[in-house]
Write a structure and sequence with these properties.
Elements (H helix, E strand, L loop, with lengths): L4 H10 L7 E4 L2 H11 L3 E5 L12 E4 L2 H11 L3 E2 L2 E2 L3 E5 L3 E12 L4 E7 L6 H7 L4 E5 L8 H10 L5 H19 L2 E12 L4 E3 L3 E4 L8 H4 L8 H8 L3 E4 L4 E5 L2 H13 L6 E4 L6 H12 L6 E8 L4 H12 L8 E7 L2 H8 L5 E3 L2 H12 L12 H5 L1
Parallel strand pairs: 14-16, 16-17, 17-18
Antiparallel strand pairs: 1-6, 2-3, 2-6, 4-5, 7-8, 7-10, 8-9, 10-11, 10-12, 13-15
Length: 392
């Protein structure tokens, strides 16, 4: 469960992490009022569950209330990585002298919490790792002892901090570690962790990802789940589907998490990008399959759909009926590639005959075909069976 920046900052502030004073606005007039209350220059920041806001024009510095209103008018309603901006965070602008990075996550191989810090903040940590890996300091924590003072000080020294900044950094590191552990997070990140021109350390940005499986322990955090931009995710949960929105244009409908990951890997292998992870689960009934395809087709970025079913508990004929019912609502506006193997596969293929889908037997062929269809490349008749193959 991802939190918006303003939600993460609210939680960080509860744990004693210094953050800029700010409020959330959903209209330009609200942004103007908030800027007037704060006084001085403000930052107007799009609130979406995606990175790259600055590059997309989703962050602006406004010297006064009028400029804040104009900036909010430009940002509200824009789309960043397929997500509409419905709120902006208006907060006091910081005079930044240096940008650091500080984050806690889980090293699953080592089965430990790992803290990462860098003197090169303000950009994606993956980019820093690729460009100058030596600038990232990693430290695995003992699960019983957590972050110790000497470890936090060592991190500060490695980042080149001196004097009072060391103690400020140590306090923030301890607070971020507490937030990470007590909220059952999988990622707690401050990027950038800014050293201001006044010589103070401030969390200018904040990212917090919570473990969905631990939300039953945190009802107050579960209430922070934002429905406005997670309509598909919320509907998928209600239907018993595992759905995660991604940034590509090939919709995926698969049974089984492992098979779904393999399907996405093959799409990437052939030069495409999956638009989602969607696992309908084992023994999915017709209604769930119909709902899954409906969710995928509502995503306007999708240019092709790849259905990959290995029928065990899930019957291929049930999948075919679900697809046909979803298509009967008006028909898919994008080409659909279907690969069915397993229980009642012949019945499923017979039901799909004449439906207009591209039906293939091989997963590699299915992935390649789906990618080619998004690029406008005509399919090979040898790669498919069913109505389109007969026409060819």
């Amino acid at each position: 469960m991802d939190l918006y920046e303003y939600q993460a900052k609210e939680l960080f502030a509860r744990f004693g992490i210094p953050v800029p004073q700010g409020e959330v606005a959903s209209s330009p007039s609200e942004a103007r009022e908030i800027a007037a209350r704060l006084g001085g220059p403000v930052a107007v920041k799009a609130q979406v569950l995606a990175g790259g806001r600055g590059r997309a024009g989703g962050i602006a510095i406004a010297p006064g209330p009028q400029h804040a209103e104009e900036a909010a008018g430009r940002i509200l309603g824009m789309t960043i990585r397929g997500l509409a901006v419905r709120r902006v965070l208006v907060e006091q602008a910081a005079h930044i002298a240096q940008e650091l990075y500080l984050g806690f996550t889980i090293d699953r191989a080592a089965r430990r919490i790992v803290v990462m810090a860098s003197s090169q903040g303000g950009v994606d940590v993956e980019e820093v790792a690729w460009r100058s890996p030596a600038s990232i300091v990693r430290l695995s924590l003992d699960p019983f002892l957590g972050l110790r003072d000497f470890q936090a000080r060592a991190l500060a020294f490695r980042l080149g901090l001196e004097g009072g900044l060391v103690q400020e950094f140590v306090a923030i590191a301890h607070s971020l570690c507490r937030a990470f552990r007590e909220c059952d997070a999988t990622l707690a990140e401050i990027n950038p962790l800014a050293i201001t021109s006044e010589g103070k350390i401030l969390a200018v940005d904040a990212k917090l990802v919570l473990d969905d499986n631990a939300l039953f322990r945190h009802p107050e955090l579960a209430q922070m789940r934002e429905a406005a931009e997670e309509v598909a995710e919320r509907e998928a949960r209600e239907k018993g589907l595992s759905y995660i929105r991604l940034e590509g244009n090939i919709g995926c409908l698969v049974n089984g998490a492992g098979l779904a990951m393999t399907t996405m890997d093959l799409i990437k292998l052939y030069g495409g990008e999956p638009a989602n992870f969607l696992d309908i689960g084992g023994g999915a009934p017709l209604e769930r399959i119909r709902a899954a395809l409906d969710i995928i087709l509502r995503d306007q970025r999708v240019r092709a759909v790849l259905v990959n079913i290995f029928g065990g508990l899930t019957r291929c004929d049930e999948v075919a009926r679900g697809l046909l019912e979803a298509m009967a609502k008006g028909g898919p506006s994008v080409p659909m590639v279907v690969r069915l193997v397993g229980t009642n596969v012949e019945e499923g293929r017979a039901l799909l005959a004449g439906s207009g889908v591209y039906a293939v037997q091989s997963l590699t062929q299915a992935a390649e075909l789906a990618v080619n269809l998004t690029k406008g490349t005509p399919p090979s008749p040898l790669a498919s069976w069913g109505p389109r193959a007969k026409e060819a």
